[in-house]
Each structure stands twice: as structure tokens, then as C-alpha cells.
Amino acid sequence: MALAVDVALKRGAFSLEAAFESGPGLTALFGRSGSGKSTLIHLIAGLARPDRGRIVVGGETLLDTGARVSVPVHRRRIACVFQEARLLPHLSVRGNLGYGRFFAGRRAGSAAEIAPVVEMLGIGHLLDRRPAGLSGGETQRVAIGRALLAKPRLLLMDEPLAALDEARKAEILPYIERLRDEAGIPIVYVSHAVAEVARLASTVVVLEDGRVAAAGPADAILRRAEILPAHEAEVGALLDMVVEDHDASGGVTRLTGTAGRLVLPHFDRLVGSPVRVRLPARDVLVATQMPVGLSARNVLPGRITALSPLGEAVMVEIACGEVSVAARLTRASARDLGLAPGLAVYAIVKSVALDPAGVGTGRRTLEI
Amino acid sequence: MLGLTPDEWVAVGLSLKVASVATLASLVPGIAVAWLLARRDFYGRALLDGLVHLPLILPPVVTGYLLLLAFGRKGPAGAWLAEFGVVFAFRWTGAALACAVMGFPLMVRAMRLSLEAVDRRLEQAAATLGANPLAVFLTVTLPLSLPGILAGAVLAFAKAMGEFGATITFVSNIPGETQTLPSAIYTLTQVPGGEGGALRLTLVSILVSMGALLASEVLARRVSRRLGSA
């Protein structure tokens, strides 16, 4: 277990009482603003103290109010990437990168190598610049590099993309994926954006008013509309697939996985590379017979496992191979088609409904 | 240059020495007190704040007399320090002490404002990167508050160059030992035919003060350019 948290804190009208555990890979703390995500990050980092609680990282107890244990911030070896980056303005990019590295080197006797991190984040050309002269995306990449070079045993990222526009987000997301897959450091990632969480997270912890509303594997959480009421339009299945081939003339990329095949608008990724695709439930159609003369390219055969009411709509869970796809239909559609658990159906998705920009790289590390 | 007489040069040199020593010696205590007032909440904080500001409000003569009572040869602090060979009474060191005390509130005020303006979130970030509190202070807080610290030092220096009341009360007006620029100007205005000398020293006074201000302005600008905020 990479991280185990069980804390309680009360500040005026706000109270936080949260317990969760997370493994390697990326754990998303998901919730709207004011739900306690950032407070939780501050508690884990040691920048704030809970009224009572326990925090264990990588087997070492960093906080145990019962046993009067509280490791100070600078000895926790938990690096943070903040929303506002917080680069030191009086140091160059090189100076910022070297800052945590210096202390890590004194502690561990050897410092992390700067070159691979600089290369991974593509910030080699910025080394002699001042933070004030960097763009938002560059600033965040330097902040990520600085955190990595501090050789942390846990990386906290507090809405690192929230202050960036869509283009800059798209620029940084691949770096965070590489970080997750290559650096081997567990990450706790705070976000209130479903797309980000769907793309990055292996585990999702949903916070609501300072309480853990749900926690579990990303795929299991992100399809449950009842625990993500504010994001009804975005819930859906997550499919881990592999790039099978590209059809340049047709402008599409084909993916294959245990659910079957998916065709997406063309995107640039090597054949054979693992990818993760989000299938929003409201973009999934259901047919009781194999459709003919249909423009939609993605027809996944499966069997209904569950129907659950969701306001005026119905969520239909369809098992396709080993994975499960969720479709959101009106009650009338479900009734007229006679949908019921056990019925063999086809889940249909238009290719263009699948956004290549939202395709994440699949996780190469195994979940434990 | 300026046609100063040797005696007048002595007064100028002494003033520069007294002001420099007063400023340099109060730098570290000044930063410490400014930091305490800016960052710490402790019992007696208001008292410390008041004590630091007292010389600003009291008549300088009163401050000088209190210094004489405490640090004079028979004063409790003076007698004790004399055992270690440190004597303030009627020495230039006493003039420096008087100037330091008088300039201290100005220095602390400027430093405190700039310490309060340092973004605490940057200090937090440094701590998460492994810097202990002292390292955070030396590598983040201090460099970021440098403009204010410089401003405080320059203010204290300028104040020391002009300090008169407390100095003359505490260590008198001994040429070559405690007769600083203001004391010399005052003395010259009290003797017949001293107007020329008084005017020349006044000119020097203005030049030194202006020079100090200019120097601090240039330094502050360079610092803030380095911080990227200019």
C-alpha cells in the first residue's frame, strides 16, 4: 500500500473526515471545489495538521496523532505540484530544478539525474530562463520536474492543470501519463474534471463535503452517475485497448481490446501502444439486433447485466467480453425495446463521438 | 574638494563610520525582530512592538538620557559591559549605539513590511522539497524580501547620519570622538564665523543622504528585476 490516510479536521463550518488507501499508479481525488480535496493534500504533505488521524506512506507513519508522531514537512519526502506551480521567482529554471535535488542529495547521499527528467518533460531549452518569462504550460512542466528531482516517495498534484487553457492541458497531459508510467512514483492527483481523471487515474476517490463518497478503480467509479450527479453527461465506461492499425484514407484509427473493436477518428499513436478510451454513456446506443446500413462504425455485441433508473433515464450495463459498457437511454426506449438483464444486445457508438484528444495512454504497470 | 577643513573632514569621516557601524550592527537584530513581528504570535509581542517603536515617539533627548542611565559608566549595563572592555560612554561606539537605537524602528518597519509580503506558499513549496525552516528562510524568505531589507538598511543609515539629540545627550560632543556631522554643524552655528563651515557640512550631509537613497534605489531595482517582477 503506497498511501493510507485516515484523518479528521474541523475548521469552523467545514469538517473533513476522510479515510482512503491507494496503491501505486495514479489516485485521483475527485470532487467539486470545497469538498476538501486541497485540504486533504495539505494534510498529507504536512502543510496542515488534522485534529486527529493517521497518515502512512510507503510503510512509514508520517502522522499519528494518537502516538504523537508528526514528521515535519521537509522530512516527509512528499513533493507537491501546486495549481499555481509556485516556482521560486528569484531562481532560474535550473535553480528551481536543482532546489529539491540539492536537499534530496544531502539526504540520500546521491542526487537524482537532471538530464532524464529534463528530457522527459521537454524543458531543456528553458534551463537558463526565469520563471516569470515562462508560459503556463512550461511553468507546470518545470514544477513537475522540480518535484520529481526531489526524489519523493509520493507525488501530490493539486489541480496542476486547472489554471491552464485546453491547449495547454493537452500539452501537459501526456507528460503526466509518462510520469505515471515511467517514474514509478505513486501519485495523488486532485481534480474536478472527469476527462482528466478518466484519462489518468487508476484509482478514484470521490470526495463530497469532506467525506469519501466512493472509492475504487477508475472504471468502476466513473460510470456511476448516482455518485457523480454533477457530471451525469460525462459518466461512462473506460476501456483499456491497444492500437491495432491506422486507416489513413478513411481517417480512422482502429483499436482492439477484450470488448471487441473500436474505430476512432485518426490520432497519432504507434501501433501496439496501449490506450484508454472513455465511452460516455449518453453517446452509446443500444440495438437488440445486429444493425444493417448504419453509419456508426462501432458495434459491440454483449449482454445486459443490469438496468438502473437514473432520474428520467435508465442506465444499461452491457457486458462486452470481459469489460462492461454503460449506455444511458430514456425510459421509453428501454421499455419499447423490452430491455432486461440477460438480453443479448449490441452497443453502438459513433466514431466521432469518441474524442481522440481524450484518449489516454494505457497503464503499463499492473494494478495490485 | 568642497574646501572642507581637516576638522570638518574628521567629522564627516566619523559620521560615516558611526552610521555604517550602527547600520551593520543592527542588521541581524533588525531582521530577527522584523521576522518575529511579521511571522510569530507570542506572548509579549505587543510589548516588543512598542519597545522597538519607542525611540520614534520619545523625544531624542529622553532616549539619549535613558541610554546614558543604562550604558553610562555607572549604569547597570554599562558597568557590566565595561568588565569585558566594551565602553559606550563618551566614545564613538556610544554614538553608534545611539544611532542604531534611533534608526531601529525605521529599519524594522521596512523589513517587516517586506517579510509580510513574501508569499508563504513559496515557503511551503520549498519545505515540501526538503528544505528545513532555516534553509527556507535563507533561500526563499530572505532573498524575496531583499528589497525591503535594503530599504530598511538605507533608512537606518540615513537616520544615523542625521541623528543629533540622542547622540549629544548620551556621548556629548567631543571633536574626533563623538562629534558627528549634525553635532559639528550645530557647534559651527554657535560660534562666530562658523556659517561657512556649517554650510559646507550641510552640503555634505545632503550629498551623503541623496547618495544613499540613490544607491538603494539602484540596488532595489536590480533585485526586483532579478525577481522578475519589474
SSE blueprint and pairings:
The complex is a heterodimer of chains A (368) and B (230).
Chain A lengths: L2 E9 L2 E9 L3 E5 L6 H9 L6 E6 L2 E5 L4 E2 L7 E4 L11 H16 L5 H8 L14 H14 L4 E5 L7 H18 L3 E5 L2 H7 L2 E6 L2 E7 H5 L13 E12 L4 E6 L2 E6 L8 E7 L3 E4 L10 E13 L2 E8 L2 E8 H7 L6 E6 L10 E2 L7
Parallel strand pairs in A: 3-9, 3-10, 7-8, 8-9
Antiparallel strand pairs in A: 1-2, 1-4, 4-5, 5-6, 10-11, 12-13, 12-15, 13-14, 15-21, 16-20, 17-18, 17-20, 18-19
Chain B lengths: L5 H34 L5 H13 L2 H12 L4 H7 L9 H26 L2 H9 L4 H12 L1 H17 L2 H7 L9 H10 L4 H32 L4
InterPro entries (chain A): AAA+_ATPase, ABC_transporter-like_ATP-bd, Mo/tungstate-bd_C_term_dom, ModC_ABC_ATP-bd, Molybdenum_import_ModC, Mop_domain, P-loop_NTPase, Transp-assoc_OB_typ1
Protein name (chain A): Molybdenum import ATP-binding protein ModC
GO molecular function (chain A): ABC-type transporter activity; ATP binding; ATP hydrolysis activity; molybdate ion transmembrane transporter activity
Summary of the model, kept short:
Chain A is of the alpha+beta class and 368 residues long.
Oligomer: heterodimer
According to CATH, the homologous superfamily of chain B is MetI-like
Gap from first CA to last CA of chain A: 9 Å
Unreliable stretches of chain A (pLDDT < 50, length at least 5) are 364-368
The number of domains of chain B is 1
